[in-house]
Amino acid sequence: MCGIFGVIAQQAIVKEDFKKLVQHSRQRGRDSSGLVYLENHQYRISRADYDVVKLLSKERPYHSHVILGHSRLITNGLGDNQPVIRGDICAIHNGIIVNDDEVWDKLKVNRQYKIDSEVIVGIAEEMLQYNASIEDIPARVLSLCKGIIACALMLPSKGKLLLFSNNGSLYTGVKNKQVYFASERYALDLIHCENIQQIKEDSVILDIPTSVMPFVVEDQKSRKENLIPEFIFNAQEEALLKYEHPNLKRCTRCVLPETMPFIRFDEEGVCNYCHHYEPRNNPKPKEELFKLVEPYRRAGKELDCIVPFSGGRDSCYGLHLIVNELKMKPVTYTYDWGMVTDLGRRNISRMCAQLGVENIIVAADISKKRDNIRKNLKAWLKSPHLGMMAMLTAGDKHFFRYVEHIKKQTGINLNLWGVNPLEVTYFKTGFLDIPPDFEEKRVYSHGWSKQLVYHKQRFKAMLESLGYFNTSLWDTLSGEYYRSFTEKKDYYHLFDYWRWDEEVVDDTLLNQYDWEKAIDTTTTWRIGDGTAAFYNYVYYTVAGFTEHDTFRSNQIREGQMTREKALSLIAEENKPRYQNIRWYLDTLNMDFASVISVVNNIPKLYKE
Questions:
Q1: What stretch of H or E contains 90?
Q2: DSSP E strand boundaries for 115-272
Q3: Are 5 and 182 in contact (CB under 8 A)?
């Protein structure tokens, strides 16, 4: 996934306008970059494994009348950067093609790289070999490939540039007879383009200077960090993961165990969590939501709502409802903080492509975010504390911050959230000695008084390992501020009006959208989250339960599941997820055996 951009000019380009275009595209990812530009009747390509702003300052291609580029959030093919080149064709592509292996099997040309985007160039190459019409290439690509495709395909020998998209994440505009394109409309608004059009149903074919000379290619590599570590199965490592079956006393109504913080059982063995439970999955009439969103609807093809979109099952199902039930025209927004797995990204690509929905990405500095997590994990390992596990996920809270940015950039106020009402855990703060607030109606707690208590308890725990006082602290605190303290306007939760039913959700996603499941677990929950497998392994190893126990308990209380079925499910869902845990520790450059050894030796909260 990346931000793509370009300008085709009849005269010298406006340097400041182009720099603004590049700067905004950088918002979508800065892991690598690439530029294509014309110099002395020959197209030059410069690819780098660093920020596009740095690359632009080195290349300074402002004399050219044609410049294309990208700023990339790496998803696969670390060594195969864009633009992707085959012969005299090159492409820059935003999105993920989820069936590239299948498409290659249908082509006669051979694959050369790992990067999924190559298949677009392969299709074009094969079509031109058989003298197919240039105008037919976009339709052929979109008919064969699944997943988001927003592409600029350059055919220098033909003097053509093809722009096409299947989800609308591509716009063109004109200024002073110069044609600009970008992944988002806002980039073109910044430089005051006119006649801005979204490319979605019809492709755009532009004339560019013809050149029969081969591309001049320069690859600039300086990164030492491996952002996409290759998974190699290691049976000895997997054997380090323990899965004990402690004999815990559990609630006779739900499945919460005696190690749950602040749990108490009555004479019949029923826990206080059950006694205080108020149904949460009891939606209001849908008609109320239809009335609430009516003032936000826009005529024609204008987008009318923002959907915060993680690629998890709840936000994916929520998008399905918004398009098919509410009949609204959404734009999705994804905050990628470095712990979104490729599985999560592929499901984002599947959903947005099939529903034809634009996806705006805000990507953090992945290296910096992972460095922050690594520092906090090292601090945690020196003094393991179950109440401090949340420090490992603190960096994702800026998700809430950037919603406001997207509202300003798009001019859309309404945002619709697909937050699961049953994802209430209590134990994560309970292990900080904070008792549960059974009156809290939100999944995320708000308010100064609650947050002050939380931060006081967390600060006390931080003093046990001073490594927490590192450069990540401001990022953590500012993210939590935007989540818990800033006023939220013009937003509604879908599952306040639609009953959340796991069977319906899974059936819809798996059968209608070919939604991808993880290979190392039976559940569809949390599979796009790179941190969940690790922290749940910690919770289970030390306390004998995980998020799955609390989630299934809530389903029991809602009458959606029997206790017997819940016990059967958690027996599977609590099994260690070796592949996901290994990915997590590899991306943090942490030694698997050393980390798991510390976790396995933490004193248990139950008798062994």
A1: strand 89-94
A2: 150-155, 160-165, 171-175, 178-182, 194-198, 204-207, 216-220
A3: yes
Torsion of CA 376, 398, 196, 134, to 10 degrees: 40
Picking from 283, 314, 262, 273, the residue whose alpha carbon sits closest to that of residue 557 is: 273
- Asked whether the CA dihedral 491, 493, 498, 503 is positive or negative, the reply is positive
Do residues 118 and 90 lie in contact, with contact meaning Cβ atoms separated by under 8 Å?
A: no
Q: Would you give the distance in Å from CA 333 to the centre of its chain?
A: 9
- Omega prior to 435 cis, within 30 of 0: no
Residue 280 CA neighbour count, 13 Å, CB half: 24
d(CA 260, CA 251): 10
Q: Determine the distance from the C-alpha atom of residue 257 to the mean position of all C-alpha atoms in its chain, rounded to a whole number.
A: 33
Instruction: Kindly report the length of the chain.
Output: 608
Q: What does DSSP say about strands 358-363 and 330-336: parallel, antiparallel, or unpaired? A: parallel
| Segment 103-157, tens digit of pLDDT | 999 999 999 998 999 999 999 999 999 999 999 999 999 999 999 999 999 999 9
Q: Which domains does the chain have, with CATH numbers?
A: 2-220 (3.60.20.10), 278-534 (3.40.50.620)
Q: Which residues is 492 bridged to in the sheet?
A: 416
For residue range 231-275, what is the model confidence (pLDDT) as tens digits? Answer: 788 999 999 999 999 999 999 999 999 999 999 999 999 999 999
